[in-house]
């Protein structure tokens, strides 16, 4: 680490202030949850480097993110759904997996080929999911084609990835990078790591990929890679700043070896967050869906799959346009996710595009939101 500069010093202060506010906001929650039940589970389909796959998405309840307990990210309310007071045992986590398998058996004709496991934290953090549980979960899904697990970059290493690739499962680690710009990640999102940590995690995945290719005991070498999750429009950025930040972030991620997919997701207003407080006091508007479409169009040529899954589209607390065109634009975004063809956006238009263009031109960080 080099000698602290005034900039680093100020960022440190900013984080302390954010953490303090977020700790206070999170302390308002009262919910508690059963450690034997997953937070959520659902079936869907997803675009992967091997084409579109049927997916089973699992949100494991692991006691919540440690960073969130320190205060954590300004937009993230997931911790409000976590088990109070700490860790969840191996047996309880395996019970959660059983509930998910039962849900799949009841609702799908055949097993999903893609498994996605999120924890509202870091699946690869052994204080959240121990090595025994990680290995048991890998074994449970050994017959599937691909798995995605979520983690902060600090916990990504080639040995943990090899727990999955040893069975021939293509393995991706989803990292909530949020943005490639360190200043925005620190000051607007309040995430503590740097783009360089993300690059290190990608290098670990690339090494795991190379080792899996050389594995003699499986029919075909499994792949390993990183899926970067980006956050469109964190608090304190005007619409045009958010768009510019996303375009450069997608370009920078796509250039990193080991990162094959970028999922760019518009911020929505979750309960018990700083974004929620700002929104309530007229200081935040989620991004326009036109902005999402614009970023996808502008980055269609990069060397990575780029997708977006706007949550809560069309609602005040989610990404939205004028309400009239929200479903149409959302559908175009979903089409783009599967086909990666930017011409899908030529087929949608609405009068509110002019309003969006004006917001892009005139909204600044001291007059926002210009339009609700
Ligand atoms: S976004 Fe991720 S790292 Fe940040 S508080 Fe939420 S779960 Fe933790
Ligand atoms: Zn419209």
From TrEMBL:
Cross-referenced InterPro entries: Elp3/MiaA/NifB-like_rSAM, RaSEA, rSAM, rSAM_sf
Origin: domain of life: Archaea
GO molecular function: catalytic activity; iron-sulfur cluster binding
Domain Elp3/MiaA/NifB-like radical SAM core: 55-298
Protein name in UniProt: Elongator protein 3/MiaB/NifB
Organism for this UniProt entry: Halovivax asiaticus JCM 14624
């Amino acid at each position: 680490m080099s000698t602290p500069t005034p900039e680093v010093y100020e960022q440190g202060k900013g984080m302390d202030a954010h953490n303090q506010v977020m700790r206070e906001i999170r302390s308002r929650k009262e919910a508690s949850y059963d450690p034997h039940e997953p937070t959520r589970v659902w079936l869907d389909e997803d675009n992967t480097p091997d084409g579109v796959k049927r997916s089973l998405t699992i949100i494991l309840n692991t006691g919540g993110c440690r960073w969130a307990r320190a205060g954590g990210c300004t937009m993230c309310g997931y911790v409000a759904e976590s088990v109070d007071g700490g860790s969840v045992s191996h047996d309880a986590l395996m019970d959660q997996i059983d509930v998910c398998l039962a849900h799949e058996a009841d609702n799908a004709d055949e097993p999903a080929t893609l498994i996605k496991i999120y924890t509202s934290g870091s699946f690869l953090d052994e204080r959240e999911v121990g090595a025994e549980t990680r290995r048991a979960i890998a074994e449970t899904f050994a017959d599937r084609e691909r798995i995605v697990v979520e983690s902060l970059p600090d916990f990504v290493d080639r040995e943990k990835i090899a727990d999955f690739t040893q069975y021939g499962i293509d393995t991706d680690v989803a990292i909530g990078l949020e943005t490639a710009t360190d200043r925005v990640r620190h000051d607007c999102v309040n995430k503590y790591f740097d783009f360089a940590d993300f690059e290190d995690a990608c290098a670990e995945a690339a090494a795991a990929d190379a080792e899996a290719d050389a594995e003699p005991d499986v029919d075909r070498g499994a792949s390993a890679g990183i899926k970067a999750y980006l956050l469109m429009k964190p608090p304190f950025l005007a619409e045009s700043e958010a768009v510019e930040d996303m375009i450069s972030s997608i370009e920078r991620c796509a250039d990193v070896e080991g990162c094959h997919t970028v999922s760019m997701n518009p911020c929505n207003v979750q309960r018990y967050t700083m974004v929620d407080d700002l929104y309530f006091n007229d200081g935040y508007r989620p991004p326009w869906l036109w902005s999402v479409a614009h970023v996808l169009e502008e980055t269609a040529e990069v060397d990575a799959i780029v997708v977006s899954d706007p949550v809560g589209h069309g609602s005040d607390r989610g990404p939205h346009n004028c309400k009239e065109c929200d479903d149409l634009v959302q559908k175009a975004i979903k089409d783009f996710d599967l086909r990666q063809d930017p011409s899908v956006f030529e087929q949608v238009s609405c009068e509110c595009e002019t309003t969006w263009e004006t917001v892009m031109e005139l909204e600044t960080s001291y007059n926002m939101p210009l339009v609700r």
